[in-house]
Design a protein that fits this description.
Layout: E1 3-7, H1 11-22, E2 27-32, E3 35-42, E4 45-51, H2 56-70, E5 74-83, E6 93-101, E7 123-124, H3 127-143, H4 145-149, H5 151-156, E8 164-171, H6 179-188, E9 192-196, H7 199-209, E10 213-221, H8 231-256
Parallel strand pairs: 1-4, 1-5, 5-10, 6-8, 8-9
Antiparallel strand pairs: 2-3, 3-4, 5-9, 6-7, 6-10
The structure holds adenine (ADE).
């Protein structure tokens, strides 16, 4: 069972690639479409790790390559998000149960947010993988948070007791950084937890190919006028540790529960 792992920013996967290189089997790198795909193992689990870069087009293209060239059986996206709901604070984790493209609007031809000719607005993530990711995040918070991030850094970013949320995430090709934009999104999507720039594209491709997917986001900002201020520092000092720690917990759990096996054959015929 090969897991495809992708992220938008280098820091979110750097530790995972380093871990692969320490496994006895090492990591094989293949460059396709200007992206480096690292295939190997982490904690004895087969994985392909890749930097997708930012935005929906980049995420969709990378997801297709993971499925068609590497035959991954499931996909996890790990990255940052802006918290939109009142309860999503910096340092929290949001695991998507569904994803929507907030900037997709082909009215009057199709309803707002609906993917034309697919008839879907919200893409559901895979129940089992999402549950596994939630348990992995719980275990990371309980066992690894303090040692991975450090008390000083947690205090510097005002992270006391990070919470875990599950629900709707919205993706669009925009960094959301104003209170008025957040208010507009909240009015359109009252159950929205967080915004980012890739997840719904990954979920759409996974739906089209019949591949289970899950999306994990660390809340880096509140998508308001100060959203950009500590972005890079948060990524480097906090979110990179969350990503590596939670993905590792996920892989350990999958190994223990025996979710391993032969990878899907590559270049198989398309599903649907
Ligand atoms: N990723 C992290 N914060 C974000 C924001 N405010 N808007 C879009 N994507 C993000």
């Amino acid at each position: 069972m090969t897991l495809g792992i992708l992220a938008a920013m280098h820091d979110e996967i750097a530790d995972l690639i380093a871990l692969m290189q320490h496994e006895t089997s090492g990591a094989q790198c293949r460059r396709i479409g200007m992206r480096d795909y690292y295939a190997g193992e982490i904690d004895g689990q087969p994985v392909v790790v890749v930097l997708a870069r930012l935005g929906k087009v980049a995420a969709a293209a990378t997801t297709v390559t993971l499925i068609r060239e590497f035959g991954v059986n499931a996909i996890v996206f790990t990255g940052l998000a802006g918290g939109v709901a009142a309860q999503t604070h910096v340092g929290d984790v949001v695991v998507a149960t569904s994803l929507i493209q907030h900037d997709l609007d082909a009215r009057p031809l199709f309803p707002r947010h609906q993917v034309p000719l697919l008839g879907i607005e919200r893409f559901a993530t895979d129940d089992t993988l999402t549950r596994e990711l939630l348990h992995a995040a719980e275990a990371f918070f309980a066992n690894n948070l303090l040692s991975a991030v450090g008390a000083e850094t947690l205090a510097a970013f005002g992270i006391a007791q990070p919470a875990l949320h599950q629900g709707l995430i919205a993706s669009g090709d925009q960094f959301i950084g104003s209170a008025s934009e957040v208010a507009r999104l909240r009015a359109l999507l009252p159950d929205l937890l967080a915004v980012e720039m890739e997840g719904a594209a990954v979920a759409q491709i996974c739906h089209e190919y019949g591949v289970p997917c899950a999306v994990l986001r660390t809340v880096s900002d509140r998508a308001d006028d100060s959203a950009h201020v500590a972005f890079d520092e948060f990524l480097r000092r906090v979110a990179s540790h969350y990503s590596a720690g939670i993905v590792r917990q996920l892989l350990r759990r999958r190994r223990i529960s025996g979710r391993t096996g032969a990878p899907r054959p590559t270049r198989m015929s398309e599903n649907g």
